[in-house]
Amino acid sequence: MTAIGGFKPPARRGQRPAIHSIGEFVLSVPDLARAQDFYAAFGLHVAEQGATLTLATAGDGYRWGRLVPGARKAMHHVTFHCFAEDFEPLRRHIEAQGVRLLDPPPGFDSNGLWLRDHDGMLIEVTVGVKTSPDEKRLVGWAEAPAGQRNAPYRRMTRPVQPRRLAHILRFTPDIAAAIDFYSRVLGLRLSDRSGDLIAFMHGVHGSDHHLMAFSRSNAPGLHHLSWDVPTLGDVGIGAMAMADRGYDRGWGLGRHVLGSNYFHYVRDPWGSYCEYSCDIDFIPATMDWQSADHPPEDSFYLWGPQVPPEFIVNMEAAAA
Ligand SMILES: [Fe+2]
To answer: Are residues 307 and 217 in the same domain?
Structure first.
């Protein structure tokens, strides 16, 4: 008898080698104490490790990021994960694309593949756990029976704890070059775009609608790190708690069209953002998402407050 109930869709698909997840980011920041306050308030577990801070999700302890001291905020590198059987094929594929493999940067010795993307950002590709989801985790409403109050007192609100890093959105001067590099070299697929303004890319082995996204600017830079939270209520509670701690600049509550996620962006001390995100679209390994080019005025967000002008400013370009 076929055990239909135990069926799980395959978490990989056979085609050219591709990374499947974001493993970790390493960000340099000018003030580690301010960083510790911000990311801890956001709901991450922040720990000191020598001269760096580590950022982990509280539930599973997974280390998503490291913060290193630097003159200004800048992405030091992003590590992507692949399946073990894809590692050597990826090495050959990357080199066949004319991309030069580099030595690890000082202090980050590893057996990974090191390369630079279309904008010169340092990338590591290594074998690692698949952090991108394998299935959609449906969000439900917590229901109280009729005749009962459903919401707790504010003092009884539990702090929001993001479940995982969902995606990274980078500024780039060249959207077409970003799409070309991340699809041709690393094997991501274009999910959707709005002309040459913004593009969203997903992993072919099952991932959110986007794990990397790109917004056009006059220089490379980090726009936001997006963190998945379980419910829409968590998006609101997270935003409120951050405002209570003085982190009241940002954008939200709203809902995107491309990705469909509910969002609230909190401005970090360096002028980029951390996003509380919930219920983003999922693209299984078994299907080809029909990517399209969408008019920006119809696809940026479905509802939400007016976009603050500073939201689309690339502070790394302003600082350069
Ligand atoms: Fe986002």
So the answer is: yes
CA distance 220 to 60: 32
90 and 41 in contact (C-beta within 8 Å)? no
- Comparing C-alpha atoms, which of 269, 69, 292 is closest to residue 191? 292
Q: Ligand 1 centre and the CA of 103: distance in Å?
A: 31
Residues 86 and 195 in one domain: no
Residue 224 Cα to ligand 1 midpoint, Å, equals 7
Examine the domain organization and report whether 181 and 119 are in the same domain: no
d(CA 219, CA 239): 29
User: C-alpha angle 22/25/29, rounded to 5°?
Assistant: 160
Q: How far is the CA of 257 from the centre of ligand 1 (A)?
A: 11
Q: Give strand pairing partners of 63.
A: 56
**84 and 229 housed in the same domain:** no
The total number of structural domains that make up the chain: 2
Q: Report the CATH number that the domain containing residue 231 is assigned in CATH.
A: 3.10.180.10
Q: Would the pTM count as exceeding 0.85?
A: yes
The answer on 277 and 191 residing in a single domain is yes
Show the domain range for 41: 18-127
Structural domain contains residue 3: no
Question: How do the pLDDT tens digits run along the chain, 320 residues long?
Answer: 333 344 444 455 556 899 999 999 999 999 999 999 999 999 999 999 999 999 999 989 999 999 999 999 999 999 999 999 999 999 999 999 999 999 999 999 899 999 999 999 999 999 999 999 999 988 777 888 999 999 989 899 999 999 999 999 999 999 999 999 999 999 999 999 999 999 999 999 999 999 999 999 999 999 999 999 999 999 999 999 999 999 999 999 999 999 999 999 999 999 999 999 999 999 999 999 999 999 999 999 999 999 999 999 999 987 66
Cα of 112 from ligand 1 centre, angstroms: 27
HSE toward the beta carbon, residue 106, CA cutoff 13 A: 0
Residue 93 lies in a domain: yes
